[in-house]
Amino acid sequence: MELIYKGKTKNVFKLEDGHYLLQFKDDVTGENGVFDPGANSVGLTIDGAGLAGLKLTSFFYSKLNEQGIPTHYVDANFSDATMTVKPATVFGKGLEVICRFKAVGSFLRRYGAYVQEGQELDSFVEVTIKDDERLDPPISADALHMLSILSLEEYAILKERTIEISKFVAGELEKKGLTLYDIKLEFGRDAKTNEILLIDEISGGNMRAYKGNTYIEPLELEKIILAD
Amino acid sequence: MELIYKGKTKNVFKLEDGHYLLQFKDDVTGENGVFDPGANSVGLTIDGAGLAGLKLTSFFYSKLNEQGIPTHYVDANFSDATMTVKPATVFGKGLEVICRFKAVGSFLRRYGAYVQEGQELDSFVEVTIKDDERLDPPISADALHMLSILSLEEYAILKERTIEISKFVAGELEKKGLTLYDIKLEFGRDAKTNEILLIDEISGGNMRAYKGNTYIEPLELEKIILAD
After folding, report:
1. Phi and psi for B16 in degrees, rounded to 5?
2. Are residues B36 and B103 in the same domain?
3. Contact A137, B115 (CB under 8 A)
4. Nearest chain A Cα to B113, which residue?
5. How many domains does chain B have?
6. What are the EC numbers (chains A, B) (predicted)?
């Protein structure tokens, strides 16, 4: 199999049957040796971080597939820390779709004149473009449409799916006594059918979860969710 | 009459008949003594800047009123550099509505991965919240709605009016051989009828205009538009 992309936290291989293999690495994003899922550079290596991310992704994506919410997930191999996925193309140069249940992070930094920290938000969806150099700026539905990144019809589907998936994840966290504050998803188009698919991963680094008023670190979160 | 607000470039007085009086000052926004309409602080004083802004605003708003596009403009007194306006309330703590015909400025800084400098944009509308401390962040229709700043119905009207007004201004500039790149408008609700009104001003400092490839400074722009 052929290595086609070396990412910050994953390597991507092309398989002979047309599928792709994502290899989850123990490298995590952060700055100055501190794990920060929102950071744009690899900050440190944590033994087992890749496998923990893969296990959580496999947990969520297999359940989503069962519920008829299309994802790129085919299966996972925990001994190699790899996940087999369907081929998909990203929108433009890649988008991140955020669903917010509580006002924290960049939302609070932008709209702090109108919201209190931690104020409840009604499954608020926003999209940012993946662009490290320009600090991943938010982009509106109209701008995505005008720049031919996404049609308005596709935006509507993306928004609906994001709310559906995020509420599902929030529900799984709730079963373990945790509250989901926000979550970041990625979508693409199925390379064969053009259908909108949930791609990438859902691991601890994709969300902010709290137990009461305490922020739960990504690796701790993965342990809690996957505990019997 | 009572002074009720001292702004960066205008003072506001309440009149006894319920109208308000805006007094245009010669202070203009900028940094380090350079006129910059996008700046958040007053940078310098230019003799005649207030009157020039008032004359251009009066020119555009009286024509808009004639066309049935509601504005807060009642009349102007050039000898005092004042404008009488209807009472209106702003959305939240104030919004700026931008219409873009060419990709320059903050749009280019955010979406430079997808557009070339100066590329044509299809009357693209975006809203920013007035918040000097948070650098006037852009905000989506959904966020405006969720934060109870504007309903989705009002957003639709705002967007339609913005395009209509901006195209009208672009047409007036075109008569003088100028091209409008982008323009910033402000809207509010009529204090009596709740109708959406164009408020504030449209002067050289609210727009970027070019003659060929040359940027036209706000005061020069006012001279060109108002020349017979």
Report:
1. -70, -25
2. no
3. no
4. A131
5. 2
6. 6.3.2.6
The residue among A96, A124, A103, A123 whose CA lies nearest residue A185 is A96
Q: What letter represents residue A187's amino acid?
A: F
- B131 touching chain A per CB within 8 A: yes
Contact A126 B142 (CB under 8 A): yes
- The whole domain housing A11 covers 2-88
CATH value at residue B53: 3.30.200.20
All residues of chain A having their beta carbon less than 8 Å from the beta carbon of residue B124 are 142-143, 146
Q: Are B72 and B199 spatial neighbours (Cβ–Cβ below 8 Å)?
A: yes
Interface of B with A in 186-205 (CB under 8 A): none
**pTM of the entire predicted model:** 0.92
- The reply to whether B228 falls in a domain is no
Q: Do B104 and B65 belong together in one domain? A: no
The low-confidence residues of chain A, meaning pLDDT below 50, are none
Q: Per residue in A62-82, pLDDT tens?
A: 999 999 999 999 999 999 999
- Asked if residue A228 is part of any domain, the answer here is no
Q: pLDDT digit string (tens) for A4-22? A: 999 888 999 999 999 999 9
Residues from chain B contacting residue A146 (CB–CB below 8 Å): 121-122, 124
| Beta bridge mates, A186 | A199
Q: Enumerate helices (H) and strands (E) in chain B, giving the number of each.
A: 5, 17
| Distance of residue A97 Cα from the nearest chain B Cα, in angstroms | 14
